[in-house]
Amino acid sequence: MSTVEDSGRAAGTGVLAAACVSTFVVNANTSAVTILLPTMSEDVGAPVAQLQWAVTGYMLVGAAVIVTSGALGDVFGRRRVFLAGLALFIASCVLIALSTSGTGIIVGRLIQGAAGATILACGMSLLSVASSGAGQMRAITLWGAASQRLRLPTRFVTSYALRNNNVL
């Protein structure tokens, strides 16, 4: 029996970059908000206990929406739903940045949780259908690195930068 290694097809650079960078941003955003809760509390005059719902709500909504957003990607097109998630994520960032109350931040984070879950579900799905064989394995590995392996160093760099620029 001869073994033929299937190199498969690699995901396009644009698809790979979009999925990995957006996944990295979603995860870095989660870390940054957790670190910035005391500063946000001072800025909007809301107690940290109230703003903790910005973190908890993000996770709850994200967990509730991730499967649904994957199914919506199957029905309406992965790329279309992925781009809608990106647009919604950006809009929620603007909403949070312009918020002058704890409630505005929490609502923005709830929207951001849904958008982040959509980005994660459809980004992985885009990579899966855009590649095969060894190319798919490389794409999924890079996506995994962007989603988890870069998270810890990002948390330290973000915290260091914020503390040394008198943000915290």
Oligomeric state of the chains in view: single chain
CATH-wise, what's the superfamily?
MFS general substrate transporter like domains
Number of helical elements: 6
- Distance from first to last alpha carbon: 64 Å
Mean pLDDT: 82
Number of domains: 1
Q: What is the level-2 CATH architecture name?
A: Up-down Bundle
The unreliable regions are none
Instruction: Give the number of DSSP strands.
Output: 0
- Assess the beta-strand content as a share of residues: under 5%
Structural class: mainly alpha
In short:
By secondary structure, this protein is an all-alpha fold. The chain has 6 helices and no strands.
Describe this structure in words.
By secondary structure, the protein is an all-alpha fold. It has one domain: MFS general substrate transporter like domains (Growth Hormone, Chain: A, Up-down Bundle). 85% of the residues lie in helices and 0% in strands. The chain has helices at residues 13-44, 48-76, 78-98, 102-130, 133-149, 151-164. The longest helix has 32 residues, at 13-44. The protein is elongated.
